[in-house]
Amino acid sequence: MEKIISICNLTKDYGEGRGVFDFSFDVKRGEVVGLVGTNGSGKTTTIRNMMGFIKPRNGKITINGYDSWKDAFEIKKSVGYIPGQIDFPDVGTGTNFLKIQADFWGIKDLTYMNELIDIFKLDTDAGLKRMSKGMKQKTAIVAAFMSEPDILILDEPSTGLDPMMRDKLIELILRQKKKGKTVFLSSHIFKELEDTCDRVVFIHNGKMINTVGRSQYDANMDKQYKIGFAEKKEYQQFLQGGYKILTKNDDYKHLTIAVNDKEMNGLFRSLKPHNIRYINYQPYTLEWYYTNIVEKQEV
Ligand SMILES: Nc1ncnc2c1ncn2[C@@H]1O[C@H](COP(=O)(O)OP(=O)(O)OP(=O)(O)O)[C@@H](O)[C@H]1O
């Protein structure tokens, strides 16, 4: 598949270890890719470089063949963007702002814009200055999606949305994915990334530390099971059974093992003679990968 976004050795150094350092990744046409990291890890800096708002110290970003810095206007003309910090121009109401946006995109037929306004139950007559955080976010969502652009770059797009509106946003992203659009989004919410992304890039202290694909967190054949034993002797016997032990607790007689789906019958056979208190399935979630990978970083 064709690369539509390419970030190559991006460095934006704000000093004292702040910024983004030698960051590289690609997004293929039609992919939905997420960016996750702690506060201050460099997500907004990466996205603002992608949109051509700031000039990288080193490296190159191309989006749909345009250079993010040199062709910043073309980028803004062709990408649907939700900023991390929404700061509307002084144009009165939401309606005025959305009309200006429609003109910018060259949209004559406002049917789809009005459909989005309905989906998000947005009162566009409200003054932009008086809008709540959630209303501002919904206005920015409508503005970014109304032209159905081929590429969407969304910086924490669900900020300030209530759970129902967050679900609407996820539906909207998935609808765009079905239409073959490319979406790049940052988020702190693992569930949102799991629900939408084909791949998620982990950023930590301005550096890319890993990429986790859907197959790893959605349908991983390796599973974890937490097993509690009634008797210490049995717990100790099982420990010697050759299973891959991830965690163990001698006092509470429980352990966590990693088992492949193909080894399940064998596992049940080895458990049969024991007095088991409980067995819990613990899926490999995106959060699990994140915690395990990021917390081990000493960068
Ligand atoms: N204009 C700037 N001048 C100096 N430092 C900056 C500037 N912009 C960002 N930084 C610093 O760069 C680092 C990365 O900031 P960035 O906003 O990209 O993080 P983030 O991952 O988006 O964080 P959050 O999740 O809190 O939104 C932070 O330490 C931030 O303080």
From TrEMBL:
Domain ABC transporter: 5-230
Record Pfam families: ABC_tran (PF00005)
Keyword Nucleotide-binding: yes
SMART domains, alphabetized: AAA
Keywords for this protein: ATP-binding, Nucleotide-binding, Transport
Recorded GO MF terms: ATP binding; ATP hydrolysis activity
UniProt key word Nucleotide-binding: yes
Source taxon at top rank: Bacteria
PANTHER family: ABC TRANSPORTER ATP-BINDING PROTEIN (PTHR42711), ABC TRANSPORTER ATP-BINDING PROTEIN NATA (PTHR42711:SF5)
Family to which this protein belongs: Belongs to the ABC transporter superfamily.
Protein's name according to its UniProt entry: ABC-2 type transport system ATP-binding protein
